[in-house]
Amino acid sequence: DESIKLNYRLTNGAGVCYHKWLPDIFDLALISLGLAGENEWFQDQSTPFAVRAVLRLTLARPLTDWAEIGLDSFYSPVVNDPADFRIYSEAYLKFKLSELVSFKLSAADEYDSRPLGSVQSNDFGLFTTLALDWGH
Q1: 74 DSSP β-pair partners
Q2: What's the N-to-C CA distance of the chain in angstroms?
Q3: What is the distance between the alpha carbons of residues 20 and 23, in angstroms, rounded to a whole number?
Q4: What string of pLDDT tens digits covers the 136 residues of the chain?
Q5: Are 60 and 28 in contact (CB under 8 A)?
Q6: Within 13 Å of residue 69, how many CA atoms lie on the same side as its CB?
Q7: Dihedral over alpha carbons 119, 106, 24, 76 (to 10 degrees)
Q8: Tell me, what DSSP letter sits at residue 80?
């Protein structure tokens, strides 16, 4: 079904963020709240637009000098229709391989309260990532 094939989604927003709370427990702890305009481009040429609120929680804690555990979650309802929302959560274990390279194992879950067509509302995956760590 061409109407459910998403070519691209662009979400731009602004908001407020509180960093570094719970410093005795987490290396990184942030909570943020904002508004974002979301544009989508589908293969059937439809281009819906929605304004979404975005609530984000990110936590990271070192386990050793070379291992870190973390969580990154987003809750994103449409402002004028809060029953239409998405949730994304990722838990990870990251291993430092060198000063600039790390390896990450992730379990991620995406939920859409109103998926299109025959698309299921929930998507779970296990992922591996090789990352360059600059800017610390």
Answers
A1: 56, 88
A2: 44
A3: 6
A4: 555 688 898 999 999 999 888 899 999 999 999 999 999 998 888 888 999 999 999 999 999 999 999 999 999 999 999 999 999 999 999 999 999 999 999 999 999 999 887 888 999 999 999 999 887 5
A5: yes
A6: 3
A7: -20
A8: T
> How much is the pLDDT for 3?
56
- Residue 3 phi, psi (nearest 5): -70, -15
Cα-Cα-Cα-Cα dihedral of 109, 112, 115, 119, to 10°? 10
Distance CA 89, CA 70 (A): 11
Integer Cα distance of 3 and 11 in angstroms: 20
Q: Which residue has the tokens 């060198």?
A: 98
Residue carrying structure tokens 């070192």 = 62
Phi, psi at 19, each rounded to 5°? -100, 160
Place of tokens 């979301």: 38
Q: Give CA–CA dist 57/41, Å, rounded.
A: 28
Residue 13 burial class via C-beta count within 10 angstroms: exposed 0-12, middle 13-18, buried 19 and up: middle
